[in-house]
Amino acid sequence: MNEAQREIGSGLKIFILLAVCFASVLAALAIGGVSLSLSEIALGEATKLEVTVLSEIRAPRVILAATVGASLAVAGAVLQGFFRNPLADPGLIGVSGGAALGAVAMIVLGSSLALPDTFAPYTMPIAAIIGSLCVTAALYAFSAYYGQFRIVTVLLVGIAINALSSVGIGIFQYLSNDAQLRSLIFWMMGSFGRAHWMTTVPCVLAMLSAVLVLITKSNSLDKLQLGENEAFHLGVDVKATKRDLVLLSAICVGAGVAVSGIIGFVGLIVPHIVRFTIAVRHKPLMIGSALVGGSLMVLADLLARMVALPAEVPVGLVTSAIGAPFFLWLITKVRP
Question: Which among 15, 223, 238, 266 could disulfide-bond with 72, CB atoms 3.0 to 4.6 Å apart, if both were Cys?
Fold first, then answer.
């Protein structure tokens, strides 16, 4: 098969994935505790309650789930290529842990800050983003100063940051009361139940912007697979490219954690699924990962909403149930 045929085949598969993602979003908008007829809503024949459920509850949740899934999957694809490690995950560099620490701190300490009610919806996402940005700044500073941004240094600093974040989260769990602890545990298992437009729109814009910029850097990431010296001779600014890949991946992960909590395995398993079915080059890999990740997260959230009505299962449990067996299978494939 020549290059042109491979391009056509990849394009057709991506078009199919786009159709699947669109169908998943429509299904998630229509199905729930209150079933909705999207055609009736489009024609203006639905009740006011149905319109409110769609526009104020279900639409922001589904859009957020699709965007978080896409951004985590793309970040996973980038980090696996960046570290040249098939087991790399967006939480590897410590950004998820830092964002979680910021959000947990706000859950436990937020009531003592006496902030105006106007700012209440934004406090936890802002705290999570601040945590992710602090981790990213620390990661870059340590790596650039001590290791000239070498991959091994990034990995070691990420492991240390994750350990420190776990200590901080444990301390806040110990200090929390029963109500805070329940909210904290549910959030750490991942949920889109708090999605609303005021927090969804800014985070979605941040994640989509980071994903689009990462896709534009796919050619440079392909060249980095040949080695840093070879990439440099092919015209890649290696240091700037590695810096940008880490920072943009951090935005994808940090913004996602800010609004949904910690959701595992999506960034690990989706890029492998796309590699097996579409392509290994990073441009189709990232686009395919975004579509598969968005579809997977939307369907996982739909299952989490429906499996125990009227209660709701944390979506992180659903993704972990899917991802853990795949992770074990993957370990058997990459063992030395």
Answer: 266
Half-sphere exposure of 120 (CA within 13 A, CB side): 7
- Is the residue at 231 inside a domain? no
Residue written as token pair 């951090």: 250
Predicted local distance difference test score (pLDDT) of residue 93: 74
Taken in order 114, 115, 118, 121, is the CA torsion positive or negative? negative
List the domain range (segments joined by +) for residue 143.
Answer: 3-215+244-334
| CATH, residue 187 | 1.10.3470.10
The three-state (H, E, C) secondary structure of the chain, written as one string: CCHHHHHHHHHHHHHHHHHHHHHHHHHHHHCCCCCCCHHHHHCCCCCHHHHHHHHHHHHHHHHHHHHHHHHHHHHHHHHHHHHCCCCCCHHHHCHHHHHHHHHHHHHHHHHHHCCCHHHHHHHHHHHHHHHHHHHHHHHHHHHHHHHCCCHHHHHHHHHHHHHHHHHHHHHHHHHCCHHHHHHHHHHHCCCCCCCCHHHHHHHHHHHHHHHHHHHHCHHHHHHHCCCHHHHHHCCCCHHHHHHHHHHHHHHHHHHHHHHHCCCCCHHHHHHHHHHHHCCCCHHHHHHHHHHHHHHHHHHHHHHHHHCCCCCCCCHHHHHHHHHHHHHHHHHHHHCC
Between CA 317 and CA 190 the distance in angstroms is 8
Q: Which two tokens stand for residue 47?
A: 């009740």
- Alpha-carbon separation of residue 281 from 11, 179, 285 (angstroms): 13, 47, 6
The whole-number mean pLDDT for each consecutive block of 10 residues of the chain, a chain of 336 residues, reads 69 91 95 87 86 91 95 92 78 80 83 69 77 78 65 75 87 84 78 84 90 93 86 86 85 84 87 87 92 95 87 86 80 62
- 106 in any annotated domain: yes
Could you tell me how far CA 251 lies from the centroid of its own chain?
A: 9
Give me the number of domains the chain comprises: 1
Q: Does any domain span residue 122?
A: yes
**Residue 209: per-residue pLDDT:** 94
Judge whether 163 lies within some domain: yes
Distance CA 56, CA 330 (A): 40
